[in-house]
TrEMBL record:
Record GO terms (molecular function): 3'-5' DNA helicase activity; ATP binding; DNA binding; four-way junction helicase activity; hydrolase activity; metal ion binding
Class of the enzyme per the UniProt entry, highest EC level: isomerase
Enzyme Commission identifier(s): 5.6.2.4
Residue span, Helicase ATP-binding domain: 27-196
Protein name listed in UniProt: DNA helicase RecQ
Transmembrane segments: none
């Protein structure tokens, strides 16, 4: 067999012409047998980074991946590309397991996916010792660290497994979100040897970001789903109860929805997940239990019904939109009451006060995200430590939406002086009520109606006043204490502002609606994809991604050469599906 170059592998199997940012460097590092750690955003293309080396090497690559239920998906994808692979997990019968092990020992597979829990089995480790293992790839490597989200104790077994293997295979690790703390933990706990570490830019141009405030969330979702009826998407809600309620609400209105959370039986979860993966249900309503390892590439939108607990989780969850490189919309529906829920969760679940302070701080950052005037993309990227030189991304609600700039200098002066008179001892809600002149019991009991700032902002609702206070927090004129009580304090910037009386502007948004027209041919190709998927019992996006169908409907190739120029069509894919798709295209040319 002739050894293909990594570019040839990319073209022949995946049908892609170019590597994305970071992929080439990571792949070259792995095939030169250097331990390698790749940090790339969700949808950035991490899988290819260990799969191409797997094909390049003579032996087998073991992929440690966190979710048993999703391995099948990954393995189906690989087999559909003509790359032989298998998974080993508890869903297999003994007979199936023996067959796979037998075939593995014959060198039949390039990749074998396993769950970390497998590493606790001696039998399994003995089997690995007789296989020619070239590479161990650890996906979702943040699970190694207790400081990351999704911590999994079995990930800690990996380093002892590696010690057992002789010769030592090259180790590669991948994650989308790693703070310095988590990064160091991964390198240390996996005992990576002088690893090459690649951090690729976190920007995802194809995703648009939007924060929606002060609107009824349910009616917003109904409007949105109506104008995006053909699209597949995820709606994240904070609790199981929220998921259930929203599910029932949307189901009654006949939307194509399904649901997923930790309170459902395994079987129902699996069924619902499949409904979504196979495009039999367009919209998944879920808690954050859903999504890790989901590689459905044609997710067009991710809506957060409640604020997530930090920017890391938000970017990872929102990043599940648009993996195929086509447009994806990430919308966060903001309601200030959710902040209290999250504070309560931190307070009840984290005993260690240093850790709790970190979490409050992170919550504050996502809260600020919802109130900033700045480009949302820039805000996120700077949060992850990137140096951003531009100010406008033209693809987030702050950069594109129609808005008015409102001079809130006077309001800001009143608010700051009220915080001062209330002795910097209360939260946003109470301050807003005092300014509005509310006759609430607590205010009267504390004699706050006697303050000179009582009732000095009359022409705003309490919600609007809170909005301005939150804006001043996000702009750091005010700060909240890092605990459950979130007491508003003045900062030096506020003192400066009062002295120098600069002007403060805030954006007031005008709502706009998105509409997407899709061509008839695109929908026909989608329909064909669905039929084939049903026949082959694999999810539609494994056959071709939306991006591939879009390109097909735009370029209308009707011969093999032209077909192979389309992104996502390699030789194996062409052999399997080329003729069927060309037929639909030819018909559309005639009509
Ligand atoms: P993640 O980094 O989240 O694990 P994946 O490996 O699942 O991302 O890749 C996301 C999508 O990007 C997949 O549909 C994959 O086929 C596609 N992709 C990966 N590399 C490239 C590339 N070089 N060119 C075009 N598409 C790519
Ligand atoms: Mg992945
Ligand atoms: Zn922007």
């Amino acid at each position: 067999m002739i050894l293909l170059s990594i570019n040839e592998i990319l073209k022949k199997y995946y049908g892609y012409d170019d590597f994305r940012e970071g992929q080439r460097e990571i792949i070259e590092s792995i095939i030169s047998h250097r331990d390698t750690f790749g940090i790339m955003p969700t949808g950035g293309g991490k899988s290819i980074c260990y799969q191409i080396p797997a094909m390049y090497f003579g032996g087998v690559t073991i992929v440690i991946s966190p979710l048993i239920s999703l391995m099948k998906d990954q393995v189906d994808t690989l087999n559909s590309l003509g790359i032989k692979s298998a998974y080993i997990n508890s869903s297999l019968s003994n007979e199936e397991l023996n067959t796979i092990i037998h075939r593995a020992s014959m060198g039949d597979y390039k990749l074998i996916y396993v769950a970390p829990e497998r590493l606790e089995s001696h039998l399994f480790r003995n089997i690995l010792m007789i296989l020619p293992v070239d590479q161990i790839a650890i996906d979702e490597a943040h699970c190694v660290s207790q400081w990351g989200h999704d911590f999994r104790a079995s990930y800690r077994m990996i380093s002892s497994l590696i010690e057992d293997l002789n010769p030592r295979p090259v180790i590669s690790a991948f994650t989308a979100t790693a703070t310095e703390l988590v990064k160091d933990d991964i390198v240390r706990l996996l005992e990576l040897q002088e690893p090459n570490i690649y951090v690729s830019g976190f920007n995802r141009d194809n995703l648009s970001f939007k924060v929606v405030k002060s609107r009824d969330r349910k009616s917003y979702i109904v409007d949105y789903l109506k104008s995006n009826i053909e699209s597949s998407g995820i709606i994240y809600a904070a609790t199981r109860k929220d998921v259930e309620r929203l599910y029932i609400f949307l189901k009654k209105l006949d939307f194509s929805v399904t649901k997923y959370h930790g309170g459902l039986e395994d079987e129902e979860r699996k069924e619902n997940q499949d409904l979504f993966l196979y495009d039999d249900a367009k919209v998944m309503i879920a808690t954050n239990a859903f999504g890790m390892g989901i590689d459905k590439s044609n997710v067009r939108f991710v809506i957060h019904y409640n604020i997530p607990r930090n920017i890391e989780s938000y970017y990872q969850e929102a990043g599940r939109a648009g993996r195929d490189g086509e447009e994806g919309e990430c919308i966060l529906l903001y309601d200030s009451r959710d902040i209290n829920t999250q504070q309560y969760l931190i307070n009840t679940s984290i005993a260690n006060s240093d850790r709790a302070a970190i979490e409050y701080d992170k919550l504050q950052s996502i809260d600020n995200y919802c109130h900033t005037n700045k480009c949302l993309r820039k805000y996120i990227l700077e949060y992850f430590g990137e140096d951003i030189t531009w100010d406008n991304c033209h693809n987030c609600s702050n950069c594109t939406q129609d808005y008015e700039l409102k001079d809130i200098t006077v309001e800001s002066q009143k608010i700051i002086s009220c915080v001062y008179r209330m002795k910097e001892s209360y939260g946003v809600g109470l301050i807003a009520e005092v300014l509005r002149g509310s006759k609430n019991q607590k205010i009267l009991a504390l004699a706050m109606d006697k303050l000179s700032t009582y009732g000095i902002i009359k022409n705003y609702t309490i919600g609007e006043i809170k909005e301005i206070i939150n804006y001043l927090i996000s702009e750091k004129y005010l700060a909240l204490t890092k605990d459950m009580f979130s007491i508003v304090k003045l900062t030096n910037k506020a003192v400066q502002f009062i002295k120098e009386s600069e002007t403060i502007y805030m954006r007031i948004e005008a709502t706009s609606k998105n509409t997407k027209g899709e061509s008839g041919l695109f929908n026909e190709l989608k329909a064909l994809r669905k039929v084939i998927a049903e026949n082959e019992k694999i999810p539609p996006y494994i056959i071709f991604s939306d991006a591939t169908l879009k390109e097909l409907s735009a370029k209308k190739p009707i011969n093999k050469e032209d077909m192979l120029l389309i992104k996502g069509i390699g030789e194996v894919k062409f052999e399997r599906y080329g003729e069927d798709f060309m037929e639909v295209i030819k018909k559309s040319n005639v009509s």
